[in-house]
Specification:
heterotrimer; A alpha+beta; B alpha+beta; C alpha/beta; A: alpha+beta; Histone, subunit A; two-stranded antiparallel sheet; 3 helices; 3 strands; 34% helix; flat; B: alpha+beta; Arc Repressor Mutant, subunit A; 3 domains; ten-stranded mixed sheet; three-stranded antiparallel sheet; 20% strand
Amino acid sequence: MAITRDDVRHTAALARLALSPEEESAFLLELNKILGYVEKIRELDLAGIEPMTHGHAGTGSLRDDAALDGLSQEEALRGAPETDEGHFVVPQVVRPEE
Amino acid sequence: MGAPHESAARGYEPVIGLEVHCQLLTRSKIFCSCSTAFGAPPNSQVCPVCLGHPGVLPVLNRRAVELAVVLGLALGSKIREVSVFARKNYFYPDLPKGYQISQYDLPLCDGGSLQIGTGDARRTIGITRLHLEEDAGKMKHAEDGSGRSLVDLNRCGVPLIEIVTEPDLRTPEEAHDFLERLKQLVQYIGVCDGNMEGGSLRCDANVSVRPRGSEALGTKTEIKNLNSFRNVQRALEHEIRRQIAVLESAGRVEGATLLWDATRDRLQVMRTKEEAHDYRYFPEPDLLPLVLAEEWIAAIRGMVPELPEARRARFVREYALPEYDAGVLTATRELAGFYEAAARRSGDAKLASNWVMTELLGAVKGDTERLRNLPLTPERLGDLLALITSGAISGKIAKAVFEEMAVSGGEPGAIIEACGLSQIVDPDAIRALIAEVLAANAPQVVDYLAGHERVLPHFIGQVMKASRGRANPELTNRLLREALEARRE
Amino acid sequence: MNLCGMSAHALRDGIAARRFSAEDVVRAFLDRIAAHDGRVHAFLEVHDTEAIAEARRLDEEIARGSEPGPLAGIPIAVKDNICVRGRGTSCASRILSGYAPPYDATVIEKLRAAGAVVLGKTNMDEFAMGSSTENSGFGATRNPWSLEHVPGGSSGGSAAAVALGLAPVALGSDTGGSVRQPGAFCGVAAMKPTYGTVSRRGLIAFASSLDQIGPLGRDVQDCLNLYNVLCGPDPRDATSAPGGHEVPEGALLQGVRGLRVGVPWDWLGEGLHADVEAALGRSVEALRQAGALVGEVSLLDPSYAIAAYYIIATAEASANLARYDGVRYGASARGAEDPAGLYTGTRSEGFGAEVRRRIVLGTYVLSAGYYDAYYLRAQKARRLIRDDFERAFAMADVLLLPTAPTPAFRIGEKTGDPLAMYLSDIFTVPLNLYAGCGINVPAGLSADELPIGMQLLAPRFGEAALFRAAQCLESRLGTLGLAPEPAET
């Protein structure tokens, strides 16, 4: 299952990464080599095996529903590249997404 | 169901499914301890976790799970013993981590249903699934025309339950009715405040149309941004009309995500099927599977109150109330609870029903939320009604006492005492009042004696007036007739 | 007295006995960093002012007679992917340059409570993605034993710092061998605890289901003491394992008589460096002489683990690294026209080539149409590998094998071949998939005077047996002592 240049471009865009044409070529080669290697897992007989989805088989711990103080607005915005009236700032969103 | 929808006349049947997001009534967010309180200054109810700082980890709020299970049980869903959280990956400025923690192939609850319509038009709408997820932040355009958007992450991480229905709805009116019923239910069981305009209940709709009688489903479109029940109905009406028009002109409906623009009353295409997101769901490695042991589900089952449908039926059965009364009284949990306590105390369920539906609802102007702040307790209303039943006071006096109780919350006996409102049942006292009235109304007495019995109510009114309403009506009636008959001699 | 050449437990004893002060110790290490770090570049940031202030505070406490903590006055170097409140924490990535976390990682809280003094942050492969510390966004770290060689990675800065005596102990993180392999290349004891025993809260995630913080020290006892401070359940990490997992110090004295040691000889064929093979032979002999029962175990070919690992780790990383979007903190490509432009600009400039390569790979294996072929299959393979380890650990208490097939490779040797770099982790990666514990123990020098490391692996929560075997190996093979002070080049 070889990865194509279009796949690389599309996948990079999905991950919000821009690749130069040279990088695209390099990634194409390297990723194909890596994917070629990982194809090995096809050799394993995985019929009837449940996927291991987590680091260990325990069950999740829960917390009680208590509201505690977090960060102040000032602390929350400290380090933000741009703020305005207590908000983080991004270029204008043309349309709502979700 | 209302009048047949216009599409029916044209031979098409709409098929509608809804996805409803309910904000759960927890104190803190789903994966961190920030407050969920509404209306705080922007980015003041946040912490490293909900801001998506590096190195943070989510920890699930137990209460959010319980409220979601309460809703699942109320909808008759199957609660999954093991459910798994998943990351839904997409980039958006209101989503700090670049993924939303949600549930995917193993949701908290499967199946279930909700009844809509009444009487013969009752229908069961299937629920596909319920799952827990986190809310995103809020965005707004900067008003300075600088072409920037401002991001507030206070809402980010507020717990949501997403309810997905089967494509069982057939008209926009049904969709509206479903949402009304769902809103009533979530409020009733206390899992959500049900405020759609405030954003605690949000809805997306999937809709397709097909020739009436056809079993196959048409191509559906998804409508987002429906922030009121009215908008759901309007948007569906628009989209159904549009799809029928496409089919009528031998065209093909294209799968797409549409956005309802309420201010312009129109739909716009948000993305076509080709642009559909690739969310790359995968199990959230930071949260181990959620296991709901049987004992825990049993304990949560104890938290589910009697549901409106069941309560309505029980009111009819147990209190011999008309269907109408039972329907009104079970509209909200507050009202039903008030009624039931008052009825039990008074010993007269029908009398209590009349009083609750007219006087009590009048006192709160139909808004049962206000019952919580009303000084009057159901027990004291019951006491008041018992005084009517025992004949201690008249209905009219009771209304005056009620008005005082609604304001002060006082005990009815004390109010009656203090205001001298207790009923006069002493025959001599009433005879004295009658004598005064007859003396002052000699011409009418002559009329009566001449056979004109229609003046009798006039005398009763005068006696009541003289007693300031306190004379016992039955006794007054009897003694008045006696006094008048005595004059014939 | 050469304080910088002493183990942490010797320093702690000296401070407690007031032979020297915590401030003496901290200043000695700060001086040595100032003198020698320029050539190896182990540190990204040195917290000299805070470290001295903290040491003074501890000295005052000790003078007042209060019981010093188990690490009182011990300076510690911290890998730059572990959050230290208010100080630069960048994961050696330009995308986080200038970022100062608003909170301490749980392990930092524990270290402070135990009296340890944070010396500074150490260099690493960007976001822990690498095996040589060449992928740092701020310049590579060099191996103190030979400046032409890599120190291993991704915790190369921590390993180099301990090897050169710039810190007595350090924290690293191990996702696929990132503590053990640099431990081997730099000749220090370096341990990866069982997944879930040490809180990951505040460890900037690379691959959440594999990451684990681990201690590096000049000897096994330092690793044990540090491990005992770090381990324990954390209610703020939902994947942390319940129960206490401390190993009593006495375990080190128990010896290995009767302990079953399995060697996976199948793994150790082609590609194994002759000096490494010889060191393995010496280690087998040492354990045997100490009374251990050394035998062969068979394990699934480790290339399957590499395959599964590079799917699972990159998939998780693709989501974990989505939060670096230039909105809330860190580098930001301002001036974009829309949010997508902001993200793409920020991420393309901020991430180095290896990080971008892994994000693309991880995104690809999760994307529509490939999930089943890659991600799901890798998770099934992971369970197979786990079951394989469980089976092996039914027959052996610990496993013994080299930490890496070769001693440290040359700088630049593998940078042009990502796959060759990935394969240098072939002996360490399987353990992370299984989620058990392991430790690197120095096993002498190669003919080229480069350290060789042997690895012991134990089942989940098998730390006691792990430390016992490691102590035995260390006492028989000897520690390497400090790396020779690098000559001017």
